[in-house]
């Protein structure tokens, strides 16, 4: 990120290379049990940023997990430390002392917990939402982890005349089609909205770049196990599709929570308030064999609240 911003600044200034400074702040690390210590660390960060900026160096101050530091004032249970931490940041960003040549960036998946004053115009007013990847984006992400240089199963290579690039492309297409299919086998959750309306969400609604990486890693491990068991060396389409299903099944229990609306915000589901979530799970064992591969049931968890 720092290198990209430096190149952008350099292009705008008509220079080939521009030095830059990147200050990475991990939100929870600044929290301190002693009164005033967190505020002091924030002042030190911006003092260092101003010092570098005065030397003509573009400075980026990046706050990760921003909601842990700058949550809405008045929401604390005990100490309400945010009542002094938030004003300290506001004073640094647009107080009497100017903040020139410094870019402040915050990252969070719970922007609803950040104090609204921080998000006002003139402060952190540019908001960029990173959406979950759709099928086309998934096709662009897969090649970063599933490359033609990896060992591929001889049977899959034979289907494409030994062309590794074509083999990988076909495997990616099949995996994406499996991940983003809208059918009973891919049903994941049934959510109930405050209005009483219900909606079935599919696995594709929760896809991410991290999930795609996990799928490829699972396929690689499966290929290694197959090779150790005496099968031909290489990743096959069967390994990849099995990895997709395994990744989906492993995530079936994750939505359990005592507050469905909080879960919806974390998962990126915005809009009407969600009041109830039910997981749609596939039958296991003998029941699965008897009811067919796509038969699914709705499961209500008796002990929610284990993930949030």
Automatic annotation (TrEMBL):
Query: Which keywords does this chain's UniProt record carry?
Result: ATP-binding, Nucleotide-binding
One Pfam family named in its UniProt record: AAA
GO molecular function per UniProt: ATP binding; ATP hydrolysis activity
Highest taxon listed in the record's lineage: Bacteria
Sequence ranges assigned to domain ATPase AAA-type core in this UniProt record: 5-131
InterPro entries reported in the protein's UniProt record: AAA_ATPase_domain, ATPase_AAA_core, ATPase_AAA_CS, P-loop_NTPase
Record's family? Belongs to the AAA ATPase family.
| PANTHER family assigned to the protein according to its UniProt record, in alphabetical order | AAA-FAMILY ATPASE (PTHR23077), PROTEASOME-ASSOCIATED ATPASE (PTHR23077:SF144)
Q: What's the protein name? A: ATPase AAA-type core domain-containing protein
Organism whose genome encodes this protein: Litorihabitans aurantiacus
